[in-house]
Amino acid sequence: GENVEQHPSTLSVQEGDSAVIKCTYSDSASNYFPWYKQELGKGPQLIIDIRSNVGEKKDQRIAVTLNKTAKHFSLHITETQPEDSAVYFCAASTSYNFNKFYFGSGTKLNVKP
Amino acid sequence: DTAVSQTPKYLVTQMGNDKSIKCEQNLGHDTMYWYKQDSKKFLKIMFSYNNKELIINETVPNRFSPKSPDKAHLNLHINSLELGDSAVYFCASSPATIREQYFGPGTRLTVT
User: What is the pLDDT of residues B9-24, one digit of tens each?
Assistant: First the structure.
C-alpha cells in the first residue's frame, strides 16, 4: 500500500515569514494530494489539493507543488499569521482506490507574533 | 447548517462497555468514512460506505461495527471497549465523483 511521510513534525516561524511542509509518497499510482489544517479540538479542514496532472496550485497565501518524478509534494504558506498556527496533514490517494486517503503524520506549525 | 455532525463530542466509559457514535451529513454526499486519530495525531481510515455499501474495511478489530441506515448517516458501534480504543474518532464524507473529504468535529472517546 501507499506510504506517506511528512516533515518536519514541528515548525516554528515568525509572523510574516514563510513556512514549507514537505511530504513524500511511495505509490506511483497516487494521483490526488490534499492538504488539511486541523485546529485544536476541531476536525481536519481541506485547505488545498492538487492532482497529478498539475505541477503547482495556488490559493492566496497558500500554494502546493508536486514533483511526480521524485514523488514529493510540498505546502507553502507565505506571510504567515498567528491564525495559521495549527497541525497540517498531507495525504495521498491512488487511481485504483481513490476513496482511501493515506495521511502523513502531521506538522505542528507555530506562528509567533 | 453544520455539514458533517457527530454525537457525542465526548464519551467517557469503562472497559468492557458497548458504545455508539453517530454521524450525519447534510451535504448530499454518497460516501462516508470513519477515521481514528491516536494520541500522536496519526489519522487512519477504518471504514468507508458508498450509498450504504461497505467499500473500505481496514484491519480493525471486529468489535468495531459500522452501520449505515441511509446515505446521510454512518454510525460506529464498539463492543467490549478496551483502553487502546481511546482516541478521537472522525466521521467524513465526500461526493461520488470528487475526492474531497469533509470531516466532522470528532468524538473524543476515553476508556478508563
Answer: 999 999 999 999 999 9
Q: Residues B77-105: pLDDT tens digits?
A: 999 999 999 999 999 999 977 789 999 99
Query: At B23, which helix (H) or strand (E)?
Result: strand B19-25
The overall average pLDDT reported for chain A is 95
Q: Hey, is the C-beta of A34 within 8 angstroms of any chain B C-beta?
A: yes
* Distance, CA of B85 to CA of A100 (rounded, Å): 22
Give the distance from residue A70's alpha carbon to the nearest chain B alpha carbon, in angstroms. Answer: 23
Out of A86-95, B24-33, B38-47, B54-63, least confident range: B54-63
- From the list B4, B48, B99, the residue facing A32 with the nearest CB is B99
Rounded to the nearest angstrom, the minimum Cα separation between A7 and chain B is 14
Helix, strand, coil tally for chain B in percent (to 5):
5, 55, 40
A58: contact with B, CB 8 A cutoff:
no
pLDDT in tens, A35-66: 999 999 999 999 999 998 889 999 999 999 99
Which residues of chain B make contact with A96, given a CB cutoff of 8 A?
none
Whether A101 sits inside 8 A of B101 (CB atoms) is yes
Of A92, A107, A101, nearest to A52 by C-alpha is: A92
Rg (CA), chain B: 13
